[in-house]
Each structure stands twice: as structure tokens, then as C-alpha cells.
Amino acid sequence: PLRYISKLRELVKHEAEKNKSQWKTMGPAKVAVPSPNDFLQKRSKEPRLAPKKKEEDGKKLLPLSVPPRTYHPVTRIKKNFISKNAIAVMTGEPKKPRHFCVDTRQGDKYLLEPSGLFPKYINKKNYGILPKYVTQRNEEMKREEEEYQASVLEQLKKKAMKVLSEEERTNILKALKKNWEELNHAYQGLPIVTDTRYKQMHKEELELKLKQLEHDIAAIEKHKSVYIANV
């Protein structure tokens, strides 16, 4: 079969040659040299205003919306300010005199209302009433204090000591005496000569246990009511 040839082959070849660097293999590109008449002139880079538009083809430009300086508006309404002010004075409410306080004999005075001597705030309806946010905060503090006290009492009840009954006390006393008898029997059965380290340690251990049991038995027999902490 014939070899496949793309339809865009010539276009791709043309694009490749078009984008190829001009001086890659054949030296620098031939660029047109600028003319000596196009030299940089003075003030050539400064911005310039656009030229004014002139009337073209007999068409007049639209007039500006701003009136000229010679324009004077026609005012036909005339007001009689004297009569107007007189009516306002006759119909208006008279000004209340301001309260002053004189504290020297030379006549030095100052306004009484901003001084704090004038009873201004005590005449209000809500004078002396606690604001809502204060009452709410007091209630919240009281509720938190009650919750804290309840939690403390609960913790104290949990950690409170329990009183042993008489029956439990006698049973514990009997068990301690029984243990003391067993340890005393074992102590009496020890050999007379303790020539080894093991025999000495065993004897000391039995003596310590007997001493502790005697102390516990004496403490329980001495005190009729025994308390045990709930740990």
C-alpha cells in the first residue's frame, strides 16, 4: 500500500521555516537602517493636547450645558423676611431661662445643670433600679455558687468516713486474734539456734507481724467506735 502523506504537510513546513531564526546559520538579519532625518528632537517626548475640533461640513458643535458668565436667572419671587421673622417670633414658644449658680460676690456664675447640683437624674422613672444585666449577672453568680456548694457536699459525702458496726468490729477483732495465734504458734516452733541468715530474717519477719497485730488488736479493743475512710 501507498505511504500515508498528511494534507497539512506543506503548511507545517511553511510554518517551521517562517518561525526559524534569520541569523542562526546565515549571519545577522538584514534590518533597514534608520534614516538620519529621524533624529530625536527637543521636547518631542512631552505630552501634547489633542487639537481642537473645528466645524466640519457645515455642522455646528452642540452647545455646552454650563451657562455662560453673563447669564443671570430671572427671580420673580420676592419674600418679605421682616414680616416672616415677626410672625415666627409671635407664634413661637418663648425660651426658658437657663439656671445659673453664683458662688462669689463678684458675680461669677456657671450653669447649674451640668454642675451636678441640679436634681436631674433622681426625677427619672428608672432611678435607683438595677439594670437587667446586673440582675442577670447576680443570678448567674448565685447559681454558680449553689452548684459549687452542691458539688463540694457531694465530694465530702463520697469521702466521708464509715462507722463500723459492733458485729463487724467483733468479727475483725476475732480474725486479728486468730492470725496472732497462728503467727505465735509458728514463732514458738522456730529453732532455738538461728545460725543462718534465712532463719534470722524469718524470725524478724514474724516478730514484726506479731507486733503489728498486737498494736491493731489493742487499738480496736480500746476504741468502741471505729471509722473507715471510703478511698
TrEMBL record:
<feature type="domain" description="Enkurin">
    <location>
        <begin position="136"/>
        <end position="228"/>
    </location>
</feature>
<protein>
    <submittedName>
        <fullName>ENKUR protein</fullName>
    </submittedName>
</protein>
<feature type="region of interest" description="Disordered">
    <location>
        <begin position="18"/>
        <end position="59"/>
    </location>
</feature>
<dbReference type="GO" id="GO:0005516">
    <property type="term" value="F:calmodulin binding"/>
</dbReference>
<keyword id="KW-0206">Cytoskeleton</keyword>
<feature type="compositionally biased region" description="Basic and acidic residues">
    <location>
        <begin position="40"/>
        <end position="59"/>
    </location>
</feature>
<keyword id="KW-0966">Cell projection</keyword>
<dbReference type="InterPro" id="IPR052102">
    <property type="entry name" value="Enkurin_domain-protein"/>
</dbReference>
<keyword id="KW-0963">Cytoplasm</keyword>
<dbReference type="GO" id="GO:0005879">
    <property type="term" value="C:axonemal microtubule"/>
</dbReference>
<dbReference type="Pfam" id="PF13864">
    <property type="entry name" value="Enkurin"/>
</dbReference>
<dbReference type="InterPro" id="IPR027012">
    <property type="entry name" value="Enkurin_dom"/>
</dbReference>
<dbReference type="GO" id="GO:0001669">
    <property type="term" value="C:acrosomal vesicle"/>
</dbReference>
